[in-house]
Design brief:
single chain; 730 residues; alpha+beta; eight-stranded parallel β-barrel; six-stranded antiparallel beta sheet; 36 strands; elongated
Amino acid sequence: MKNLSEGEQKILEARHHDPFEVLGRHPDGDGIVIRAFLPGTAEAAIESRDRPLPMDRIPNTDLFEWRGKPDAVPERYALVLTDHHGRTRIRHDPYAFPPRLTDFDLHLFGEGQHRHPYRFLGARVVSVDGIRGVLFGVWAPNADRVSVVGDFNQWDGRAHPMRSRGGCGVWELFVPELEAGMLYKFELRDRNGGIHLKTDPYGRRFELRPSTAAIVEGPDDFRWKDEAWMAERASRDWQHAPLSIYEVHPGSWQRQEDGRFLNYRDLAHRLVPYVLENGFTHIELLPVTEHPFDGSWGYQATGYFAPTSRFGTPDDFRYFVNLCHESGIGVILDWVPAHFPKDDHALANFDGTPLYEHADPRRGEHQDWGTYIFNFGRKEVKAFLIASALYWLEELHLDGLRVDAVASMLYLDYSREPGEWLPNVHGGREHLEAVEFLKELNTVVYQQAPGVLTMAEESTAWPGVSRPVSEGGLGFSLKWNMGWMNDTLSYMHKDPVHRRWHHDQLTFGLMYAFSENFMLPFSHDEVVHMKRSMLEKMPGDEWQRFANLRLLYTYLFTMPGKKLLFMGNEFAQGREWNFEGPLDWHLLEHENHNGVRSLVADLNHLYRDSPALHAHDFEPEGFQWLDCDDADSSRLVFTRRGGGQEWVVALNFTPVLHSGYRLGVPVSGQWEIIFNSDSRFYGGSNAGPSGPITSRPVPAMGKEHSIEIALPPLAGVILRKVPEEPPPAR
């Protein structure tokens, strides 16, 4: 009986870090030896022109050998395999192929400077020397052995061990004859002998949950038709353009008749017309990165390069984006680099060590969420996350990323008590590695995908979140104005009789409104977890609640800042959002609810079409208070300017009709109300003037001319000067 070498013994025990050292073609004196490890095989031979060349089984093993002359078999030989049921198949030997990943790619990846590692890691259908198959690659530097497993090898980790590419920590294997659609995972043996079955961090498609295998995705041959949109996006002056976002959870916006999810294509054909009708410029999707748990709403991702299979295939998702772009609608993704779940099949403890997460739980865990924190100081982890962002922007044509929970990334003591966090090298609480990651993320994104937007959900006073990296900022395009949102909702929740004591909650935001590029959000976070729906937050009887909500949205659309509404907010959804079912669309049959929807649509169109309301959202010249001190009557009056327009906005936060209310106006002439949230078209009482009003030279609110109007209860009005008729031609 042959004595097994140490390498052969390691192959049999599935613990060899370099199976090519034993398997495949090797010199043997004046000839060669071809060795293959073939679990479940009864007989094996090497295909040749004349007849198969039988291989000898090493007794009591599944190792087979053939010895002969070098020219007897080709370099890329095929094996003839017969199983114990007498079935025969022919396949090329993976161990007859040299390494495919280039040293240059591996070097850039190790330095954290490879912007597209998903183009060589993961699973790719390729042809090598005319032989088609799948090239697998995975980063697992601390593993003792890595194998690719799947249906093609009965999920047997002994069958296809991968080649280690040395110090970079990457493993690779080309498996001939595999095609797109195959299921696969990686089986890793750690240095203590533990076995870990992991899905592909760079997988571009996954099984429908609760199954977790990755699916080999074929080459991208989707035919995009959004060239005009993409070209215009790259040169768009977004800061001075309207931006009104409709935030959507695809699983609960609408459902099929039987309660099943809509496919991305079906969603596109229903959602796009609705968004167009209601005047939004963009759709923001709650995370559609693959995730195992519906109840996380996508915020605990496991597939950073894959649209979730809940709603279809990656091409179905491309169809959704393409239709949006053809219809003039942008698409933004809620993207989550702040944390990841502890699911055994995913990134957690990937190669038996804390690879993607920080090893110390004081840096590497969010106790509140039961999740891990990325090790932002590790170059390969930064490369992974930045590549994910670029994948969605470049390969899937998205127009922006909303980065969730940025505050939790910036501060080492976020939601931690003393002793539960580690200070940085300077003894401070700032997470320096995360800060550098965010700066690099934004820098690279703008370089690689001109015209896209990045938006930070950040609730602290960190300076320069939306200022360029070159000026010391984090580099985001926009920052969610959480302070404005919290103050506004707190104020609107109060009974109007008490609002006079809290007037500063409406005015304080203008003290810092232009310190960042702010977005004004009423998002999903405000209508869950017992916070109640937007309508239920409003005080008073039914009439007052709807009037308050219409007033709130008028305030939103006339204040400086870009806009965001969560789905259902636009028609006054009556109950909290529930991800397990669709919105209450039947409410649109009721006048009040449909009135709110009509109001939001009209405000959107007015905002989009009127430079006064959007051209200077981030600049003080676009806004001026006319009266911000009338706390006793809970009224606000201000102007919005832009594009040669100057409009007056008056808001009444009490249920009292103010007859004979005198407003200062910028110029003399006739003025008209072009929007009234109390209009009967929106379900209001239709109070207020209906025709032009001529100004008088009576000083008011710091202006030399003024007009008198009836200011409706719990309502806002927008006024503009009536355009003067040109003189008749002579």
